[in-house]
Amino acid sequence: MRQLTALSRLFKSSLLVPISHFSLSLSLDRSSAMESRVFSRATTIAHVRRPLRESHSNTSCSFVSIKPIGAVGEGGNLIWGRQLRPSLLLEASSPMNARKDSLRKVMAAASSPAEGSDSSGDGKVAPVGFFDKYPALVTGFFFFMWYFLNVIFNILNKKIYNYFPYPYFVSVIHLFVGVVYCLVSWTVGLPKRAPMDSNLLKLLIPVAVCHALGHVTSNVSFAAVAVSFTHTIKALEPFFNAAASQFVLGQSIPITLWLSLLPVVLGVSMASLTELSFNWTGFISAMISNISFTYRSLYSKKAMTDMDSTNIYAYISIIALIVCIPPAIIVEGPQLMKYGFNDAIAKVGLTKFISDLFWVGMFYHLYNQLATNTLERVAPLTHAVGNVLKRVFVIGFSILIFGNKISTQTGIGTGIAIAGVATYSFIKAKMEEEKRQGKAA
Questions:
Q1: Could you list the residue ranges that cross the membrane (predicted)?
Q2: What backbone phi and psi angles, to 5 degrees, belong to 80?
């Protein structure tokens, strides 16, 4: 009996050993499978996150690489034939490290001198253009060229009238040379020609007609009287502008502006009474020119478009040329064909006659273009003062070049008129600047 009991215990123990061994093996396999799933998930996560890390490769951030399962890495520990990887433990904290590294890189880039900046260091300094480096000098050059071209135009224009007194034909030449210049500029694309439609043409025709009339009557006055006297009469143009704004447009003109115009009227009257070259043709033509340019300004405000000033002036010149040709043919055509051209060529020669007409047209177009370019670079007040100074320069140089004798009263009247124009321009520009600032606020 004892032997049977012993055998039974021995039998049970022999059975339990394989079972326990089997259970231990089963538990190990389960833990192994769980570990494999954990590693496989970690590997999957690592592969999913790898493109994100690769997309940040430009930030030069270092990440711990994931090695295949089963490879023994540096510093790895083997348990049950598998490696406990420090890389997997670091993987959870690597995004925070990556953000810190990226932030450090961005801060370093922000604090370092950028390329093209003026900071010292390894950054490259972009070259500064002459126009940007010396803006005041460039603006002064524009003013100088504006005055220079205008003075040369007036002197050469008057010299032509001394041997070729045909202002209608000369006015056509002025516009014709300017139109050719514009066409050539459009051909080479400097500037690019803006398209024209019927609506814009209807708006520009009144402007061009007034421009043509004012230009022709100015030249008639230049041919009839001294250049200095014509410019003295044309100093009344602000008076006509104020009158048109008050009585045509219905705009309220402050009393200060009207008071500033009184010296202009007084000065022109004093100069006209004692002007040695005075005649009614020159005086009336200059007054018609003032009225024409006043209405040109009014129509120009109605014809405001998105087209740039260079293209608008080109189209106005083309229309004005067409307007000026018929009066020139009707008024001066027969005289020109009979003896006008022959007398001029006999006096100065064909080459000088043609070159004088060409250059006077070029100077006329260029000084008008320079006046527009100068206006775009400075404030209205600066341009208004510059316009007054231009008239002073023209009057002064014309007296010196042609030796026109003026009386003391004419000189005083001219000075009073110019001072009045300067006062008017200052007050008007100041009011426009305050109005613009009020709208901006």
A1: 134-156, 168-188, 203-227, 239-260, 280-299, 311-330, 350-367, 388-404, 410-427
A2: 55, 40
